Amino acid sequence: MENPKKNVDKNLFQLANRPEEQGDKIARPSTTLLQDAFRSLRRNVFVMISIILLVFILAMSIIVPMVSDHSYTEQDLNASLMKPRVPGLEKMGIFDGKETKNFVGNNVQAATQKANVAYDNASDYMDVEVVSEGNGSPNSAEVKVTYDKYGAKDMADDYYYFGTDRLGRDLWVRAWQGTRISLLIAFVAAAIDLAIGVAYGGIAGYFGGRVDNYLMRFLEVIVGLPNLVVVILMILILDPGLWAIIIALSITGWTSMARIVRGEVLKLRGQEYVLAARTLGASNSKIIGKHLIPNVSGLIIVNTMFTIPSAIFFEAFLSFIGLGLPAPDASLGTLINDGFTSILITPHVIIWPAILISLIMISFNILADGLRDAFDPKMRN
Amino acid sequence: MGKYIAQRIGYMLITLFLIATISFFLMHFLPGTPITNENKLSPEQREIILETYGLNDPLPVQYVKYMGGLVTGDLGVSFQYDNRGVTQILMDRIGPSMQLGAQALLIGTILGVLLGLVAAIYHNGFMDYTSTIVAVLGTSIPSFVFAALLQYVLAVQLGWFPVATWEGFSYTILPTIALAIFPMATCARFVRTEMIEVLGEEYITTARAKGLKGSAIIFKHGIRNALIPLITVLGPLAVGLLTGTLVIEKVFAVPGIGQQFVSSVTTNDFPIIMGTTLLFAVFFIVMLLIIDILYGLIDPRIRLAGGK
């Protein structure tokens, strides 16, 4: 077989103009761990949507309670259980603050009369539509009454975007205030878990031997106690409030962080660069702080991101079973609990806090999943 | 193995003893007694009540009595329900909770495994995205939000199911679904990851090279190996159902342990709170033990020190 290369004229080739030093040039600027992770995060659409959503929710939870006309504790029994009403949208027939209810009676008059009784004879603000004329037999006639409560209560200029609760508190403000408190609890609890977990795990992993042994036996005792039971006991003992919940969540929460950090530090401390640092006379705290912690920071960030939604869930869970913040404070959990008691009659009270907590949880979980993939070099293409 | 289990049961008893002791003293250091706010009572009546419940004894005496009772399964007497024994109250209520938990775990696992397998087999297909969305929603949305939604839409608006309480099988459907969502989502996620990994293994390539049919590969080689690690998540899921039953039983007014606990928290019925706490602790610790033993039995890489 003939080699095709032989037929090529050598004069067609010429030497590339390539200076010696070009080979050593770094084509792209080096990236830090965070830059690298962020770059791969940016390609994930769902993660970016989650981040935008979370920033929006966080901003609203800070701004709304500050600028709103109503405070989250302000009660107005005259405006109790108002339906949501939003300017602009009301013209489209949704969120117009009107209540629609069907009344039955032996005939149309009787049914309408029942509606009149229910709505304090405010017939000017009632829009009666006959559903069925009836034939005189009991409850055969049915009328559909649309009642403009805002007009009847002389509040035509008021807008409660999410409506009001039983005590006439503005649910729009309460929902955002509740979000603020829930996020605050979650962030503080996560920060405490982070601080204790990293310090504990770092020390145990770095010093190893007997220190590690004692610290890990103690940790095992804590892990062995049922989480739920410890949290509930702590809440019962401490005065109910923000700090009780934070402390209760932190007491058992830091263990998983400590375990992860310990395992990773144990692996890393045998590496050459740690030996080099030690040979150069770096102190223990410097080696832990400057060399080991940055190298486990990816794991730490991911774990913290998973801690936040679980803290939000636990807070809401505690509030839902009656161990949460005392009234009139609001958190997403207490709002859902309040709304649940009257879900059959006024579902608008529970719906917004429920949507908010779900959105926050979903966003944080997607973000944490994305971060885990971003920090894991094995997941790269 | 026997020695290991004996050792673990020993630790278990010590942990339970500690939990019982700690919770006993915590409860008794709380300010006030169950009758502090009963202003109608005369001092003599108060004295009689405290005497009957043994609340006048010095704390160590009460402690020894309580612990003595524990050994024989006596959890004390409820403050709230006409002097009924806590053990009796809890035994009466354990049925619905167990049934709910078992049904939810069973349905959740089966559906989750199916969903995860289908997602992995049609990797990056429509079913895969569906199952991922279900998994994210199921693990994110709090169970009580989900329960309230189910109750409002399926029971109140559509009237397909009874709204609440516990009078027959149809009453168990909604609470079971609400409780099963989380295990289902977790299983789906876990099985999907495992199955994708297994399908990428070399023995699968070998099987394919041998000319095995696709279904034979998936059923004989794939599923078997993917499902073994599932046992490791089932334990934590069973423990997690405890948290679930507390809220689900409240939402659907199921007369179970969880609902009893929630109502005892609001009425400060400490003997019941303590009894339930201990019951939860026992369940939790026994589950941990079972999981650890299963780990050792199933995964040959984890052999316990001291031989078989």
Automatic annotation (TrEMBL), chain A:
Residues 179-368 form the ABC transmembrane type-1 domain. This is Peptide ABC transporter permease. Belongs to the binding-protein-dependent transport system permease family. OppBC subfamily. NCBIfam families: Opp3C. PANTHER family: OLIGOPEPTIDE TRANSPORT SYSTEM PERMEASE PROTEIN AMID, OLIGOPEPTIDE TRANSPORT SYSTEM PERMEASE PROTEIN APPC. It is a multi-pass membrane protein. Pfam families: BPD_transp_1, OppC_N. Keywords: Cell membrane, Membrane, Peptide transport, Protein transport, Transmembrane, Transmembrane helix, Transport.
TrEMBL record, chain B:
PROSITE patterns: ABC_TM1. The chain crosses the membrane at residues 9-30, 100-122, 134-156, 168-191, 227-252, 272-298. It comes from the Bacteria. Residues 94-295 form the ABC transmembrane type-1 domain. The keyword Cytoplasm does not apply. It is found in: Cell membrane. Pfam families: BPD_transp_1, BPD_transp_1_N. It is a multi-pass membrane protein. Keywords: Cell membrane, Membrane, Transmembrane, Transmembrane helix, Transport. Belongs to the binding-protein-dependent transport system permease family. PANTHER family: DIPEPTIDE TRANSPORT SYSTEM PERMEASE PROTEIN DPPB-RELATED. This is Peptide ABC transporter permease.
